[in-house]
Amino acid sequence: MALLTVSLPYRVGMTVMGVIQKSSTENPFKTVLERDVDIPKEKAVEFVEASIDHINCYSKELRRLFLVEDIVDSIKFGLLLWVLSYVGAWFSALTLIIIGVIVLFSVPRLYEDHQDKVDEYVQLARKKVGSLIEQAKSKLPAKLQKQKAS
Known about the structure:
Blueprint: H1 2-20, H2 30-33, H3 41-66, H4 71-90, H5 93-113, H6 115-139
């Protein structure tokens, strides 16, 4: 809508200026209109084939999570969805995009400045989360624990 709001008055204005100056009233967007924008079939087929691999991978993972193949992973996924529902209720999509852009450009810089401390705390958090998951798995009945094939 914004692009049309700008391009339509520009086109009309250039046409009026051409009539007033008695010069050619050629479309000012002629060079853009003459460009080839067709997508080759080969590229489209490559894109679809690559997309199918990703879609199959994601569908298998979602099936595994929703049908509770591993109870701990399904609980973590459920908690993630629950947290995201609250985040979605608190913020609009535009606010989340703005926050995401700010985080995208500030976190790498902060990590570079404080890499040693961040790595230390991340390692500590991984150990704590790992021990909590192991405790939770050990308390589950043997039937619910995922049987891992070696």
